[in-house]
Amino acid sequence: MLPIDPTKKISFSRIVCDGDLVIVYERHDNMKAVKVCQDSVLQNRFGVFKHSDWIGKPFGSKVFSNKGGFIYLLAPTPELWTLVLSHRTQILYIADISFVVMYLEIVPGCLVLESGTGSGSLTTSLARAVAPTGHVYTFDFHEQRAASAREDFEKTEVCNLVTVGVRDIQGEGFPEEFSGLADSVFLDLPQPWLAIPSAAKMLKPDGALCSFSPCIEQVQRTCDTLISKFTDIRTFEVLLRTYEVQEVRMNCSQGDGGNLGSLIRKRRRHSGKGNNVQDNLSSPTVMARPCSEAKGHTGYLTFARLKCLS
Amino acid sequence: MSQNKSQAGTIQNPRVTWEGCSVLLDINDGDRLVFARLSAAATLKIGNKNFSLQPLIGCPFGSSFQIENGDKGPFLSRFVASMEGNNAQEKEDFESQEISKDNRALVDNNKAQSLTGEDIDAMRRQGATGDEIVDALIANSATFEKKTLFSQEKYRLKKQKKYAPKVLLRRPVARSICEAYFKKYPARIGFLRVDTLSLLLSMANVSANSDVLVVDMVGGLLTGAVAERLGGTGYVCGTYLGVTPYPMDIVRIFNFSDEVCNRIVRSALTELSLTQTVTLEQIHQQENELNMECLSNPQMSSSVSMEEISPSEKEITVPVPENAISLVNKMGKSTKAGNKASQQAIELWKENGFSSLIIAAPELDIWSLLQDILPLLSNSAPFAIYHQYLQKYAKDLISCHGMLHRLPCLTPA
């Protein structure tokens, strides 16, 4: 998934091969991860798609089913992976993930500690950020989920950058071997305050910590614990608002003295030949409005820096 | 390269300042933010005095400094904040103060404080520290005791900011630089907020070994943020319409190593879009000629008239002198970011395509730009566009809806 291996880098010449992971795009909100296999087929509402038709095609291609329906084959990225991975636990989405990577100042070469691994959504993006010389050590207390995460990291080929450990960080803290070596620590635990003292030992001075909690009471308690060894404590909530964009033609032909009449909404159909402009409508304006269904609260992100005490 | 992993991290982003490095000074918890370059001669003005920044050299990022009195006058001195064990005490005090306090007895006639300005100056001359002055002010305030704990704390903080200011040494990275500019000069960065910047970087899948194309009209902040994520691998190519590259000053604040700087290049859109290709032999021949001319001709003006490196039919005068200058610089100075992209790199991008594209260009017409620029992207490459105003962006989005047959479009916030 990551372009560390030059043969895997997306390019005009790279084609879909047997064994590749592709993201099958049906709609912007309907995608799935598929491992390409010479003899396999994909069945969905658009028909039956033979994998063998995909092999040899460039990524980004539109491919057709036996019924003439189509899908797109996209190259996987951590963002797309977050949208298609199987949820063993509740995951973090793009808005939170982007902000965490930025605010924890994660760059290539960093050593990052994470607990818990969950479904590996954030972990995959952390791997991208530290590549190729850094490493992510992630821990989960659930043995089965840790194993599923390891499988996923093999699938997405980030296993060289991620090590999954089975450990109860709330109870035992992070392993001593990482003391003073971590550039950043990320916590997604039900009682993060229990892990704060250990996190403080792991971090380099001025290193960054982030704790993700859905409830404000958890945030409060975390901040109380952070105050002794950390500074710059800030809590954020990141909300992504999507907009619906349409072209609207105002009907000005009839109406009494200045009334605008009805708005005729028309989804613009792209045609290379140009617009079909109707005579009694004035030129279109583009309107944008927030989508009626917006994604809601996920959690609060609390950031802090380890004080320089020497 | 046989560095172990934790060392590699330190070299990429050093945690201790050095002579000549750029820093972000945070005065009084974000009240004032100043970018500075540490040198023996550098100073910072606090109040009406200039303080040398020399004491900051060699200190870890994240250290705090306060004003202390020395033989040669007041200077900045590093202090280490004690761990706050008195937190518990404060909470007890708060809870025991059940007597309700209010402001009925307070009169705003400026007579509550008995210390005068001259008294304070005298204290200073006698070598009193900032904290001692603050304590003295509190002791000499007739109304202090009558205030609530909350109000007392507020008063103390206010006096500390004035008489005992603190300077925090921050590391200039994408996050801190973006936040500082957003606070101080948001127009210079097109009002690009740090969470939006983070989304652009994620959506465009910026990672090591990527070749990222950017149209950066936000002062170089975007270019710098991308370069930071590339970590000295891949390329970030800043492209521009016309012949003049967009300014990239903010890149210099990042403290990038030479490896990273070498990866930040520029190329006019016309150059990237050319269909004619030049063989590698021709390129090498031209570069060799340029080398020889430059070494024997120290005058820059004469080097402009010689052969162009690019195969372009259009005469692009700006990039050629830059190339000449960068060759001379190799004889001693560190690499400057933003050199013209080499012909080899351009050919490689034409062959493989860019891995992704980010546009942050408040003044440009995105639709027409996209028509020219999207063909430069690899198959299935993501791209992200930032615009401050929804309406302008929405208009262009409608136009490019039809173009998106092969490339996934991820809408930024």
Give an overview in words:
The complex is a heterodimer of chains A (310) and B (413). Helices cover 21% and strands 30% of the residues of chain A. Chain A has helices at residues 51-54, 78-84, 94-103, 121-130, 143-155, 169-172, 196-202, 216-226; strands at 21-27, 30-35, 41-44, 47-50, 62-64, 70-74, 111-115, 135-140, 162-166, 182-187, 203-213, 230-236, 243-250, 263-265, 285-290, 300-306. In chain A, the strands form 4 sheets. Chain A has a 7-stranded mixed beta sheet with strand order 9-8-7-10-11-16-12, with helices on both faces. Chain A has a 4-stranded antiparallel beta sheet with strand order 2-1-6-5, covered by helices on one side. In chain A, helix 2 runs antiparallel to helix 4. Chain B has 413 residues and is α/β, with parallel strands linked by helices. Chain B contains 16 helices and 13 strands. In chain B, strand 5 and strand 6 (73-79) form a beta hairpin. In chain B, helix 6 packs antiparallel against helix 8 (221-230). The longest helix of chain B has 17 residues, at 280-296. Chain B: InterPro entries: TRM6. Chain B: Pfam families: Gcd10p. Chain B: Keywords: Nucleus, tRNA processing.
